[in-house]
Each structure stands twice: as C-alpha cells, then as structure tokens.
Amino acid sequence: MRKITLQLEPLSCPSCIKKIEGMLNKMEGMTEARVLFNASKVKVQFDEKRVSAEVIEKSIASLGYPVLSKKVA
Amino acid sequence: MNAKRTTWLTGIAAVLLASAFLLQWMGYVDARNVLLLLATGAAGIPIAVKAIRSLRMKTFSIELLVTIAVIGALIIGEYVESAAVTFLFMFGAYLEVRTLEKTRSSLKKLVDLAPSEATLLKDGELQVVSADSIEEGDRVIIRSGEKIAIDGRIAAGRGLVNEAAITGESVPVSKSIEDQVFSGTIAENGYLEVIAERVGEDTTFARIIELVEEAQESKSITQKFLDRFASIYTPMIVVLSVIVYLFTRNIEMTLTFLVIACPGALVISAPVSIVAGIGNGAKKGVLVKGGDIMERFAKVDVVVFDKTGTLTQGKPDVIDMHVWGMDERDFLKQIAEAEQVSEHHLGQTIVKEARKRGIVLANAPEDVEIVEGAGIQVNSGKRQVVIGNRKLMQKNDVRIEKAAQEYAAEREHLGNTVVFAAIGGELAGLVSIADQVRPEAKDAIQQLRKNGVKRVIMLTGDNRMTAEGIGNVLGLDQVHAELLPADKVSWIQKLKKEGHRVAMAGDGINDAPAIAAADIGVAMGEGGTDISMETADVVLMADKLDQFAHAYSLSKATVRNMKQNTVFAVGTVALLLAGVLLGKVFLAAGMLIHEASVLLVILNAMRLLRYTSRKPEDRKKRDRKRLLVE
Questions:
Q1: What is the complex's ipTM, to 2 decimals?
Q2: Smallest CA–CA separation between A52 and chain B, in Å?
Q3: pLDDT tens across B29-76, in order?
C-alpha cells in the first residue's frame, strides 16, 4: 500500500472534487482517493502492484487538471 | 487545458470583443459579426471542452448549461449575446481563481516558510543538502537569518529564534543548549547546531499544515445544507426551465433562465468564509479544526478553565521572601544548598530561584532526612536546617512569632504556598511560592465576556485555598477545587445538561477526558504535544489565552460572514430569476450580475483574513499604556 499526494493548479469549482474523486475511485487498485479542494491537492492510497503513481498522475491530467508536483510516501 | 492557455484565450476574446464594438460604431456590421463569432470561439472552446469532459464522467456541469445557451444564441443569430456570455463566463472564472487564491493565501504563506535546503555538519565537513534528505540524528547548522528545516534539540550555540510559524507570536525567543527548536521557525541572529529529531512530514510544522488543510476541507453544517440544497436545486431548475419554455415558448428566455439559475455564488458562499476564517486563525497561532467547529464555537456561552498550566503558567516561582536577622541572599543560599537533594517541586523551585540570582551552591548537605508530606531536615555547614510546613516546625520545637503567622496567613489567602525555614533551631525566614497567573489571563477573560460568554468557571485538582485565591484575582464566576479528572467530566456534563454550550480549556493528559466531553475542547499546544493536537477541537499554539479570546470572536465573525454570503447569494439568484421571468434581464446582463455576485461573496470572505478581535481604539489605548510604561 502506498500513498501519493499530488498538487494541482488552484481548483475553483467545488464540482471538480466530484469529477476527480469519481474517476479515481473507479480505477483499478485504488484504496482511497480524496480531493482537498482548498489546498488543491489530491491524496491517494493505492496498491502499487496493481496501479502506478504515473498512471494516476496521467489520468488526473487527462481529465483537465495538470499536476504541478507530487510526493510519494 | 491549463490555466495559462485559458487566460490567453480569455484575453484574445476580450480584444476581439472590443474590436467588434469599434467596427459596429464605424458601421461594418458583417465584419463585426465575424469578430463576434471568433470571440465566441476563443472563449467558448475551453468551456465546451470542460462540458464534454464532465459529461463523459456523467456529471452535470455549469459549463454544459452555458454551452447549450451559447449554441442556442448562435442558432437564433444573437452573436453579441453569445460572445458576451462566453467572455464574461471565462473572465469571471479567471477572477474567481485569483481571488480564491487570496483567501487561501494565509496557508500558502505558511507553507512557503518551510525551507528547501539545509546545511549539515557531517564527518567534520559542511554539506548543503535538500531538506527532504535530512535524517534523524543529523547535525544541522543554522546561521543568522536562516530558516530551520527540522525539529530538534540544540547541541551547541545560541540565538534568537522567531517562532511565528508555530506559535503566531512574532517576538523572538532566546534559545540555547538543550532547548527545542521547530521546523519553519527562523533564527534571527546567532548560530545554532541542532540534532535533528523529527524530519520531513513528521515535524510539528508539517503536521500543523496538514491539520489546517484537513480543517479547511471539513464541512460546516451550513455548508452541508447548501450542498444538499444544490443537489436538489439543479435538477429542479432544469424542470422549471422546461415549464418556462412550455408556458412562454421563448427559447431565449428559457436558456437565460437556465444559465442564471446556476448556483455559483451559493455553492461557494459558505466554504470561502470558513477557509478565510481558519486561515486567519492559523496565521495567529490558533488551529480551529474545521467549519463545523467554527459554528459550534460561536455558540459557546460557558467557558471552563483548568488551573495549572492553563490559567497559570504551570511553573511555580518564588514570589516573595520574609527573612529575619540575616541577609536575604545568604538565607536563600543556605536553604537552596539544603534543598539541592530534594525532589519535591517546591524544593526545586527554591534551588532554581537561587541559581537565577547567580548564587553558587557549594556545600552539599549531609545527614539528609526527607519527611514525607512535611519537608526536609539536613545538616549543612555544621548547622541544622529544617525546611517545610508548619507541622514540621512544631515537631522540631521551632517557635513561630505572631508577625510570621500573620505574614503566612496573608500570603496563603492570595493563593500562595508558604515554606517555613529554620536555621539552627530558630525560624530564619518564610518563602512564598506560587504558580503565577498568566499575565494575559485577565484581559482574555474580559474579552470573552464582552463577546458573549456568560459564565467563566475554573475546575482544578489543586487545594481550595490556592484555587480561590486565583478565582478572586481573575474575577471568575465559580471555582471548584480538589477535583479528579473524572469529576471535571461530570461537571462539564452537568453544565451541558443545563442547556449550556461549554468550551473546556486545559493543558495536560489529565484534562483530556474533560476536553473530549465539552462541546468545544481547547488545548494548549506547547509547540505541539501529540495528545492535545489530536483530541482538541481548537489548539492554542503559543499557550496564550488571548489567542483563545481571538479564536472565539473569530468564530463569531466567521459565522456572521457566512450568513451574509448565503443571504446575499440566495437573494441575488432570486432577484435575477424574477427579472428573467418578467423579461427585464437578458443573458449577457444576467451573466454579468451573476459573476459579480460570486466575486462579491469571495471579496466579503477576504475581509476575514484581516480580522483582528481588538478594536482600533483598544489598540491605541494599549499602545499609549505601553509608552507610559517605557
């Protein structure tokens, strides 16, 4: 189990939360995905055997939210 | 679509729109229409892209409504309308992001305080490394003006450290060997060598940031209500617009209705106030752990304090000495030498006082006898020294004169503890020791009362005499002494049953049950001890009671701000919809007002960032007082 925190560009509409969380939670190997609206961060817990940090980052970016930086723990 | 490109497209649309109006003024209608179509495209494509993306995620978005409205406008040939609406929508979104960033700025300022590099002393060499790569046990060098990257203990050097990032207090603190320093604080001058104890995400500073981020996310009751409201509101508006169309057969009016009804300002009205309020607190050293806590805190009418460490400093001090027949310094030297072996906190206080006055304690005591619950008897420098309470004096046949009796009684009435000391069988002096009341306590309690607290109560495990002394000094409504932690909990439960909203402020593990039982638990942070930071609803990072008073008035201001925003947002949408139905408000104008209302809501919340609980006149008065003192 690993944890990753991604910093996005400032989020402005609360509906973005649902969009990003909905997409991530449908992904394979996801334990928990949470969007911090005010900090514009996404915190994800995932199974590194089934999905990689790069795939998570790419999926968020392709939804229209470029990732500025990320921290894997 | 990244932020920069969107900003560019909005700018291009603005230029096209302005040129179009110029052409119209010059009479070129066809050329004008071309420019208007281009402007619609420039600003409209990002909107349409977002709309399609969220449609693929099966979510209903504001962008979708706008896209439908713009396509509708294009079909009926309203090019001015379509260009104006897309531009206003994009420009509004741009301004929203910019202003929202401002409301979040206090947290960003905090985050920026964490340094990215540090200097290590390794194998006798200095190395500059990134802050992330420091490990526990590394020796970190901090020079004058540098930020500290880790939590740790000073191994060498001394200096003045500004701990505002942790405590909100900007007066620098003097630190030397064995003192604790925190990540995010700044060494204003001096030189420090620090052994790293906590690094990276484990530092107090990193945990504060994380707590604040989580707090800003947690939803207030009002916010939850608004979310639920928005989720029935949006489909309701769709149904209503269908009804509008069936009645009027007017596509333009229906589309306008649909776009104007978007709950933009409504959805954002509560969260921006909370974010700004929590940000203000964090900057001033108060962690309020969520929007719901803000709302509950604002309703508090009874405040309960623990005594030791909360209303008082938690460190006993020698307040006064009364000495007969010898020099005060000499007296202190003799009894302090005797007390060197004592483990009792009163004894240690006497030793500490002697050291503070620069007295060298040379003679180690001989024949030490510790009398449990009474004091200490030693032979020091060939003379017998007896230090302790009245009982110990009586046991040793030491006579206590009337003057001494009176002095002792007087000090005890003030809540001090009086220690008797006899040298060579004669009473030589009295030492009065007290855990002093925090200097800001009285003002803070007054401010709490002014802001709506009806009763201030102290619950303590200490003896009745001391407790009542402090109750008198601070003018508390009730004082209950000699309580066990469980008794404190039942007092809080009793107050809650009477219908009060209770805040409980305490400092240690012994207060944790009472803190948990209260409606609002307030903990002294002491630079971040684990238990207090996790269990409490509100943490005072600098252990200062005026932060408590500030947090209370801040919570009231935040709730007030949130209400203003909600009323304003609901009112604007209602008025606009009425205007649309009466045929007075059209798409572009409606969009302009709609975006303006969102901005006003954010701007109103931004006022909270600058909120100070002291009125300007109070501050002036205080400054004048300070001048007089100096």
A1: 0.76
A2: 22
A3: 888 888 889 999 888 888 888 888 777 766 666 778 788 888 888 887
Nearest chain B residue to A72 by CA distance is B201
**Which of A22, A64, A73 is facing B1, going by the closest CB pair?**
A64
Strand partners, B479: B458
Q: For residue B319, which phi and psi values (nearest 5 degrees)?
A: -95, -40
Of residues B201, B217, B267, nearest to A38 (C-beta): B217
Torsions phi, psi of B170, nearest 5? Answer: -95, -5
Q: How far is CA B417 from the centre of its chain?
A: 35
Catalytic residue among B306, B511, B537, B543: B306
> Is the pLDDT confidence value at B622 over 80?
no
Q: What is the pTM of this model?
A: 0.73
| pLDDT level of residue B178 (50, 70, 90 thresholds) | confident
φ and ψ of A18, to 5 deg: -65, -40
Residues of B in contact with A41 (CB under 8 A): 213
Terminal-to-terminal C-alpha distance of chain B: 60
Q: Any CB–CB contact under 8 A between A66 and chain B?
A: yes
Q: Verify whether the Cβ–Cβ distance A39 to B104 is below 8 Å.
A: yes
Please tell me whether residue B111 adopts helix, strand or coil conformation. Answer: helix
Residue B476 is encoded by which pair of tokens?
Answer: 């508390």
**Nearest CB to B101; choose among A10, A41, A73:** A10
Q: What phi and psi values does residue B342 have, to the nearest 5 degrees?
A: -75, 140
Q: Mark yes or no for CB contact A73/B49 under 8 Å.
A: no
Chain A residues with beta carbon closer than 8 angstroms to that of B96: 12
For residue B374, give the nearest of B400, B354, B353, B396 by alpha carbon.
Answer: B396
Please say whether the beta carbons of B210 and B180 come within 8 A. no
Q: What mean pLDDT is reported for chain B? A: 83
Residue A69 forms contact with B (CB below 8 Å): no
- Assign B483 to helix, strand or coil: coil
Hey, CA dihedral for B272, B277, B278, B284, is it positive or negative? Answer: positive
Confidence at B508, pLDDT banded by 50, 70, 90: low
- CB of B363 within 8 A of CB of B337? yes
Are B213 and A9 within 8 A, CB to CB?
no
Burial track B402-432 (b if 16+ CB lie within 10 A, e otherwise): eebeebbeebbebbbbbbbbbbeeebbbbbb
The pLDDT > 70 percentage for chain B reads 91
Query: DSSP string of B16-60?
Result: HHHHHHHHHHHT-HHHHHHHHHHHHHHHHHHHHHHHHHHHHTT--
Tell me the C-alpha distance between B417 and B315, whole Å. Answer: 13
What DSSP assignment string belongs to B526-552?
A: TTT-HHHHHH-SEEETT--HHHHHHHH
B477: annotated active-site residue: no
